[in-house]
């Protein structure tokens, strides 16, 4: 054993016992009996035996098996125990990020298990812990759906509680509201809002726009040339040339508009396109790249600085998204009877309208908010995003929302609307390929692409989200108006029973006197 391995206390026996204790390896399954002969016909050296028949061949023997050209890498790794594969990883012969590719599709869980063991060896700071005895699960998961699509260097998965609010009547249909969250009272509160909205006949929604955007940054030798390019893009000739190139990349990508802006000698072009039932970032990026190639034929001196020049704008708050929209733009509306406001929500129409103006409108304006004219739209939207396999980082712009309330019918009833111009969702691609998330979409009746109307399923999901946000807004504002919020959170979100204990053993630190 090399001096490096000795310095890491990484002896064969120590590693075998360590992995045995942490149950990362099942001796019956992961330690196959070594072949009696190699492919060249030579007899394998005697096997070392440790406690309970644990064995570990030398690094040189493992490397010879792994690099034997007569076998595929998957076959070679199948002849090695987990500990022996870890030896190769430790010596740099097997890259930890490539384990799934090397093992093949039939051994993806083993690749994850070995990576967990490798992580246990990483140098750590004073406060970090290994995965020994970890509560992070890794077994019985379909890693084939993750590979090459959702995550790299996988060591397991993190379950999030999934609750159901509602059901809520949306455009005449009843939908359960799936919410993956760890915030107590959120599902219960949203359910209360659903009950109040249903009492008034449910929610009606309007789709005002459907277009994903990408805004590249393009440099020119001079501001004059950038200006000429802007005029060309804005012209019918330029628009036609870019549209034809763009739409040649996908039968679903339809270019709807181009918006241009100049800063110095840099031109920004905001491509807006429909993307079917996909959220569409990959689709529009591919189309934009093709369109820019076509543009370069007219302006060979141009240089594409970035396919995304932050003029899109993706995963950042931006006024352009709030004004122009991005993804699905939805307006939801409902009338809540005054009697329901009093009996279910425990407040009054007058109190709700006053609070909404002072908090959601004036308060947000005082804070200089962009699209933040709401109580907690992000709470509901993000919970549904997690449950349905959306990109949670896009909650930044997707949760932009304006909540409005006004008295109607001589002040007896409450008219409520939510306006959400940037709901970025899809029912195909991304996290929607994962089994549990597909199950949630299937429960809603919108799994995958719509067979007859491309884009309809993703639009329905956006309508569900906006309506659920309305339910959450109504309930929270009512709790605030009635003074119930703190009492509810103390009862359901601050339980001493659910408070986790400190790590054991406690990380050593300086004594306090």
Helix percent reads 40-55%
pLDDT averaged residue by residue: 87
**Count of the domains:** 3
**Counted beta strands:** 11
CATH class descriptor name of the largest domain: Alpha Beta
Count of alpha/pi helices: 20
Structural class: alpha+beta
**Which regions contain 5 or more consecutive residues with pLDDT less than 50?**
1-13, 19-53, 502-513
What is the third-level CATH name, the topology of the largest domain? 3-hydroxy-3-methylglutaryl-coenzyme A Reductase, Chain A, domain 2
Indicate the overall shape. Answer: globular
Strand coverage percent: 15-25%
Radius of gyration: 29 Å
Organism: Coprinellus micaceus (Glistening ink-cap mushroom)
Keywords: Endoplasmic reticulum, Membrane, NADP, Oxidoreductase, Transmembrane, Transmembrane helix
Main location: endoplasmic reticulum
Family: Belongs to the HMG-CoA reductase family.
């Amino acid at each position: 054993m090399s001096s490096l391995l000795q310095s890491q206390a990484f002896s064969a026996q120590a590693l075998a016992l360590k992995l045995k204790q942490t149950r990362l390896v099942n001796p019956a399954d992961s330690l196959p009996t070594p072949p009696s002969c190699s492919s060249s016909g030579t007899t394998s050296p005697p096997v070392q035996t440790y406690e309970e028949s644990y064995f570990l061949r030398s690094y040189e023997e493992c490397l010879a098996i792994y690099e034997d050209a007569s076998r595929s890498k998957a076959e070679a790794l199948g002849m090695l125990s987990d500990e022996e594969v870890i030896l190769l990883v430790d010596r740099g012969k097997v890259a930890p990020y490539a384990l799934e590719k090397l093992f093949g599709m039939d051994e993806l869980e083993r690749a994850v298990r070995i990576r967990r063991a490798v992580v246990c060896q990483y140098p750590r700071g004073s406060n970090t812990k290994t995965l020994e005895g970890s509560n992070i699960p890794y077994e019985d998961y379909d890693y084939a759906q993750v590979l090459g699509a959702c995550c790299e260097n996988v060591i397991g998965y993190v379950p999030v509680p999934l609750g159901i609010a509602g059901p809520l009547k949306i455009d005449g249909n009843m939908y359960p509201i799936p919410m993956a969250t760890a915030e107590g009272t959120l599902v219960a509160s949203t359910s209360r809002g659903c009950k109040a909205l249903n009492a008034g006949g449910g929610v009606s929604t309007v789709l005002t726009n459907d277009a994903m955007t990408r805004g590249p940054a393009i440099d020119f030798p001079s501001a004059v040339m950038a200006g000429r390019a802007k005029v060309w893009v804005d012209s019918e000739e330029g628009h036609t040339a870019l549209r034809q190139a763009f739409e040649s990349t996908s039968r679903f990508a339809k270019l709807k508009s181009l918006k241009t802006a100049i800063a110095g000698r840099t031109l920004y072009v905001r491509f807006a396109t429909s993307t079917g039932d996909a959220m569409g970032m990959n689709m529009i990026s591919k189309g934009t790249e093709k369109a820019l190639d076509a543009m370069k034929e007219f302006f060979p001196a141009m240089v594409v600085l970035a396919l995304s020049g932050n003029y899109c704008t993706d995963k950042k708050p931006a006024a352009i998204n709030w004004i122009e929209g991005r993804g699905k733009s939805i307006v939801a509306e409902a009338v809540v009877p005054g009697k329901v406001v009093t009996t279910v929500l425990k407040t009054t129409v007058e109190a709700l309208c006053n609070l909404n103006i002072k908090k959601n409108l004036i308060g947000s304006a005082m804070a200089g908010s962009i699209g933040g004219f709401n109580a907690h739209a992000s709470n509901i939207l993000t919970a549904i995003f997690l449950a349905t396999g959306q990109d949670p980082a896009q909650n930044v712009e997707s949760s932009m929302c304006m909540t409005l309330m006004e008295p109607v019918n001589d002040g007896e009833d409450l008219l409520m609307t939510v306006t959400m111009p940037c709901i970025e969702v899809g029912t195909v691609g991304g996290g929607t390929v994962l089994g549990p998330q597909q199950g949630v979409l299937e429960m809603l009746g919108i799994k995958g692409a719509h067979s007859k109307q491309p884009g309809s399923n993703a639009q329905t999901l956006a309508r569900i989200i906006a309506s659920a946000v309305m339910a959450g807004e109504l309930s929270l504002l009512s709790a605030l108006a009635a003074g119930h919020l703190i009492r509810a959170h103390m009862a359901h979100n601050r339980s001493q029973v659910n408070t986790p204990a400190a790590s054991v053993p406690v990380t050593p630190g300086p004594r306090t006197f």
